[in-house]
Design a protein that fits this description.
This protein has 326 residues and is mostly helical. It has a single domain, classed as Orthogonal Bundle (ABC transporter involved in vitamin B12 uptake, BtuC). The protein is built from 14 helices and four strands. The strands form two sheets. It has a two-stranded antiparallel sheet. A hairpin with a 2-residue loop joins strand 2 (148-150) and strand 3 (153-155). Helix 2 (28-51) runs parallel beside helix 7.
Length: 326
């Protein structure tokens, strides 16, 4: 009971900090970086979910692209509001992931990673050449989302970027709670056993494909929502926005944060790399990829288990007489 209360208290502190942070810190650049971080958090949480069933998806950017283009077409050609484009984009990405998963998840392992990487490249080629739908290399420009009135409160996307900040934070909270809860149910225990030893799990009667497809589809849904929110935030979508480099970036976010964690690690990794990468991109103009890579190498060298392992490092430093003890 006490442990449960502590967890709820930590969640409450984090939520309170997220809500009041824009009121305490009025740095627009930092808020923009945090908004973008929230979008990548959705993708990183999805990647971690797939990894926890023993698979590595290198096509996260493809599902972001699917969600982004669906949202862009709906908003630019149909005038559909953002509140409808986001779930529709997620559903489109999830539908594609379900069909793709039924095919490629049968091979599993390294071959699955290669297949999803190839799928990402195919998606980029389609977005570049299917000009009738995607407008080719020029991309699609989106209108500013319409204002929303809730009671006496008017949410205006045209006057401020704060609605995007709070919307990204809300989506991360929802995705985090869903995957956190799933990780602590019977399904979570099954997916972990599948990742640990898929052959033994299959002999015990566990339907591997069923759980792999479910997690792959659910992860793609939130990744598609993240892609849709990203293009609404940038007011543009085009082939350069979602490439294989973004899929590798999501992988590095999870590694840096701690791939063993279902939510906290991916979120911390996405926040750390997105914010630091943004600032280092300004300090070292044109060398953002290099500074990004150096940061990843430093974290992996100092904290092999990700930043989630920092508690263990401090605990060892605080315990006298442990040096050299095996």
């Amino acid at each position: 009971m006490g442990l449960h209360f502590k967890k709820l208290a930590k969640i409450g502190v984090v939520v309170t900090l997220v809500i009041f942070f824009p009121l305490l810190v009025r740095d627009r650049f930092l808020l923009a970086a945090l908004t973008e971080s929230g979008i990548w958090c959705l993708c990183a949480i999805g990647f971690a979910a797939v990894f926890r069933v023993g698979q590595i998806s290198m096509g996260q950017a493809a599902f972001m692209a699917i969600g982004g283009y669906v949202a862009a077409i709906m908003a630019s050609k149909g005038g559909i509001p953002i509140w409808l484009t986001l779930p529709a984009a997620g559903a489109a990405a999830a539908l594609v992931a379900c069909f793709l998963g039924l095919v490629v998840l049968r091979i599993g392992g390294l071959y699955f990673a290669i297949a999803t990487l190839a799928f990402g490249e195919i998606t980029t080629i389609i977005s570049r050449n299917w000009a009738d739908v995607t407008q080719g290399p020029s991309g699609i420009a989106l209108p500013v989302p319409d204002d929303l009135s809730i009671g006496g409160l008017v949410i205006s996307f045209s006057r401020s970027a704060l609605p995007f900040y709070y919307l990204s934070a809300l989506l991360v909270l929802v995705a985090g709670l869903i995957f956190w809860r799933l990780d602590r149910t019977r399904m979570g225990r099954i997916t972990r056993s599948v990742a640990e030893n898929d052959i033994l799990s299959e002999h015990l009667g566990i339907h591997l494909m069923k759980y792999r497809v479910i997690m792959f589809t659910l992860a793609a849904f939130f990744t598609g929502v993240g892609g849709a929110l990203y293009v609404h935030y940038l007011l543009w979508v085009g082939p350069p926005l979602f490439t294989g480099a973004q899929s590798f970036a999501v992988l590095m976010m999870c590694v840096v944060g701690g791939i063993g964690s279902s939510v906290t690690g991916p979120v911390l990794g996405a926040l750390l790399l997105t914010i630091s990468g943004t600032y280092m991109g300004i300090l070292f103009e044109g060398l953002r990829p290099l500074s990004y890579g150096l940061l990843v190498l430093a974290v992996i060298w100092l904290l092999p288990q990700g930043v989630m392992d920092v508690k263990r490092v401090f605990a060892r430093l605080a315990m006298p007489g442990t040096k050299g003890v095996k």
